[in-house]
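Example: LysE family translocator.
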Amino acid sequence: MSLEVYLLYLGVLAAFFATPPDTSQLLIISNSLRHGMRKSLATVAGDLTANSIQMTLAAFGLTAIVAANANALWVIKWAGVAYLLWIGLRLMLSKGAADTPQAAAPGRLFRQGFVTSSANPYAVVFFGALFPQFIDPSLPILPQLLILGVTYLVVDGAVLLLWGWAAQRTLGRLKALTGVWINRISGGLMIGAALLLGLKDIERADQK
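Written out as structure tokens, the predicted fold is:
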């Protein structure tokens, strides 16, 4: 892979992430508001772990299988939508403090990030379509896939951290908010993430 191709890849990623916050980004914003940026690193780790698995599936040629199995895609996606809606509604109806040891447990936050990212099964198809555009078939494939995959994870992680940092900074300026209102805002973000995930099928249908 030449330097020119790699820089083009970075440009594509920059354009891809230069959009309003998506499902995973809304989740990190919500968790950063409730628990702080440091604890929300577990959410970022969960998201990137799911992305790593999706990249691996794409690299091993399972993209066609995933794309063809519409029933599996439907179940995975709507299970994720239901999960996010459940979290969001529970937060909005909560009358307790914004942060508790159980709610802020790293395993719990990691699971939220992992499930939310995994609930977008089209990510496998996305990676399967993206990576071949930047691979030189005359060179070893695996090192190129590693470079593309690691670069994506670094950029994605940086974007998530930036959203989380911005959310925490915003919270610092709104210290008058009570725990109940923080929960309501966070719950609204969760529900928004669920709606974004649910609309993916509508967007795909419009493109057909």
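Residues 26-31+41-207 form one domain.
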